[in-house]
Structure formats: C-alpha cells, structure tokens
Amino acid sequence: MFRFFKKKTTPVEPLPEAQTTTPAPDLSISQNTSTEVSPDAAQSPPVQGRRFMLSQALSGAPLGRQTGLPIVSADIAQPSAAVPIVSVDAAQQPEAPAHAPALELVEDQSAEQTEEQIAEQKTSWLAKLKGGLAKTGQSLGSLFVGVRVDEDLFEELETALIMADAGVEATEQLMSALRARVKRDRIEDADAVRQALKDVLADHLKILEKPFDVGHVKPLVVMITGVNGAGKTTSIGKLANALQQRGAKVLLAAGDTFRAAAREQLVEWGNRNNVSVVAQDGGDPAAVAFDSVHAGRARGMDIVMIDTAGRLPTQLHLMDELKKIRRVIAKADPTAPHEVLLVVDGNSGQNVLSQIRSFDAAVGLTGLIVTKLDGTAKGGTLAAVAAGSQGTRPVPVYWIGVGEKMEDLQPFVAADFAAALVG
C-alpha cells in the first residue's frame, strides 16, 4: 500500500565526454623562447560600442582555467595565493570540472559614461594637477596680487621662472613673448597679465603635446628607459591600466633583471591590471625583450611594454647594454621598437636635460613620461625642454604623473599644465 507514495527514480544517463570537459586553448608560442607566457585573460573589450564581460554564474565554483589571473613567471619557487602562477604547457593543464558553472554574458554598465561624469573626472584631474604644482603656482601667482603692470613686475616674473627651473633660455623666450603681448593688447591690469602668461606658456609648451598613438601597428612595441628611481615600473603599471581603458590588450615584459624584486613588482602590477607578464629571473634582458615581442605577436596583443633596468647616463657599459636591447628588439620585429620612452623625475630640475640628451643619443627617444610632479617646486623644467635648452631636443611628453593612484597618470595637455603652473 505504500508503493503509491514511493518516489519514482529515473536512471541518469552520463553525458558524453565532449560535453563534460572544455578543451584547453592552444597556448603554445615559439619553441625558441626561454620565458613562459600565461594564458590570455578574458578578451579585452572592444574600443567602440557597448562592452561586455564574462562573469561567473555561480559564486562557489572552483577556480578554472578561464578565471585564473594571467600572471606569468618562469621560476617563482613559492607562488603566493594572490598571484597564481600559470604554466604554459597546455598538456599539463587540468581539465575543467564537469560541474563547472556556465559563463553568461553580462553587460558592463561601467563602460558608459555620461558627459557629466567625464567633466567631473577632468575637473578632478585639473585639481590634482594644480595641487601638485602648487609650490610653483604660488610663487608665480602671488606676484600678480595688488601690483601695477610695470618693469618691476616683469623682473619679478623673470626671477620666479628661473627659480622654477625654467632655465635662462626658456625664461628669455617667455618674457619676450609676454612683453610683446602686453604691449600689443595694451594690457594694464595684473590679472590680465597673469592670463596672458598662461597663454604664452601654453603656446610655448604646445610643441611637447602629442597624443600616444595606439593601433597603427600591432603589436605596438614600447621600450621604457630611465635612471634609477625615476618610477619606470610604477609608470608601466599605471600606463597598462590607462591603455586597457581604451580597449587595448597589453603584454608586459620584466626586462629589469638586475634590481632586487623588480620582476615581482611588475608581476604585482600585472596582477592588479589582470595583464600577462613575461619574466625570467636573472636572465638576459635582451632575451626577455626578444621573447616578449614574439609572444605579443603570437597572442594577438595590441601593445607590448618592455621594462628595463635603471641606469645613469655616465654608466657607459649599461648604456651600451641598452643599445643592445634595442637592436635585439629590432631582430624580433624590424620596425620595432615603435616607441622608446624615457621616464624622468619631475623633481630633477635641469638634470632632466642631460638625461634626455644622453638617452636620446643612445636609443633615440620618441617620448617622455614625467613623474612625481606632485609637490614639486621645479615645474618649469618642461619649459626648458620645449625651448631646446642646452642642446636638448624637445622630445614630446606623452604622460605626466601627479600622485600614487592608478588614475594619477594622465596625458600631457599644454594648456592645462600652463594654467596649473601659473596658478
């Protein structure tokens, strides 16, 4: 009589093997490379239109091949839980478990920004820039308070520009242009002179303003150089984030094989940005650069950024090594490197000029990244660069940094910089 309440069971047929596992992607790269490259992260979002991202449908799923962070290292003995190390041998990879949850497409609402949000971001950046250059801005801006427009004002402005490390040549050019504008427009108000100085300075710095062009070649190979402590590795991490925001797929190469923890630092930046890193502990930096170019091409990357060890221009053997790295990159791609950037400390003052001359002579610079401008009293250095002081070529400034946060590295805009510098 209890058979009526007995639950009927239906035998479960096993699913075909092809439906229970997901084949591992082909991650093989050139057999001649000595470094290991991680599997690709999820596809980078397209540059235009709505962006979509993959999200895990069930939160309790085990970490599979698709969800691991794409950090690469050839020989880290004890990888931490925060930076999972991924092998490149597809044959050794575990298959996705049969109970792995399906992935669904979820619209990334953060991709769309209103005009108000963009305006707020620009206002926030200008405030940071003005705050970073406050010391220089105060020394210049205070000269226009309650004064008459006469020769004494011009002399004080000239002194303030030289004290801000604008240099004699740039100061003479700026003051000559300012005097001509004041005379032409018959300016008699101090505030109007301040605005005229902003305009003159913006015109003077315009030669350094150039957009960082991405997409004209693939992959775009970028070689990063600089002296010790200028902030190369940190700038690479921030730059990778900025380029990802444009929809570019980025690959990093840890070419600084000499400084302690340099590789780990770049791997950590890769972890933050979910970017793959080509690394080789204690290896030849030229070999790392060579492998990264091949890996970037094989993996369809948009940009390959190669870090290099810091060196002083007076260390001739290290400058020769930098030349070698450039030559080896050209062997991997005859058109590369497409960009050779020099990272300079904004607090270095006139010493920046000698750095530009030395590195430009060695590897042929295409652009600058100026860091640590927050709190500097030497904001006029870029005016000296624009003037070609001391035989320095006016190399374009692609990016400037005014803080430690990820978003504190922004493109250089001459008018914004001039407005913040004058105060």
Walk me through what this model shows.
There is one protein chain. With about 425 residues, this protein is an alpha/beta fold. Among the domains are: about 80 residues, SRP54, nucleotide-binding domain (Four Helix Bundle (Hemerythrin (Met), subunit A), Up-down Bundle), CATH 1.20.120.140; about 200 residues, Rossmann fold (3-Layer(aba) Sandwich), CATH 3.40.50. Helices cover about 40% and strands about 10% of the residues. The chain has 13 helices and ten strands. It has an eight-stranded mixed sheet with strand order 5-4-6-3-7-8-9-10, with helices on both faces. The chain has a two-stranded antiparallel sheet with strand order 1-2. Helix 4 runs antiparallel to helix 5. It is elongated, with a radius of gyration of 27 Å. The chain starts with 16 loop residues before the first helix and ends with a helix. The N terminus is likely disordered.
The portion of residues forming beta strands comes to 5-15%
Proportion of residues in helical segments: 25-40%
CATH overall fold name of the domain at 220-416: Rossmann fold
Which structural class do you get from the secondary structure elements? alpha/beta
Number of strands: 10
Mean pLDDT level: 76
Rg over CA atoms, rounded to whole Å, is 27 Å
Question: What quaternary form is this?
Answer: single chain
Strand order of the largest sheet: 5-4-6-3-7-8-9-10
Report the biggest beta sheet as strand number plus sense, adding barrel if it closes. Answer: 8 strands, mixed
CATH secondary-structure class of the domain at 220-416: Alpha Beta
Shape: elongated
Residue runs with pLDDT of under 50 for 5 or more positions: 1-10, 15-111
What's the helix-strand series? HEEHHHHHEHEHEHEHEHEHEEH
The CATH superfamily of the domain at 220-416 is identified as: P-loop containing nucleotide triphosphate hydrolases
Measure the end-to-end span: 93 Å
Q: What would you say the CATH architecture of the domain at 220-416 is? A: 3-Layer(aba) Sandwich
Number of helices: 13
Enzyme class: hydrolase
Region (Disordered): 1-47
GO molecular function: GTP binding; GTPase activity; signal recognition particle binding
Family: Belongs to the GTP-binding SRP family. FtsY subfamily.
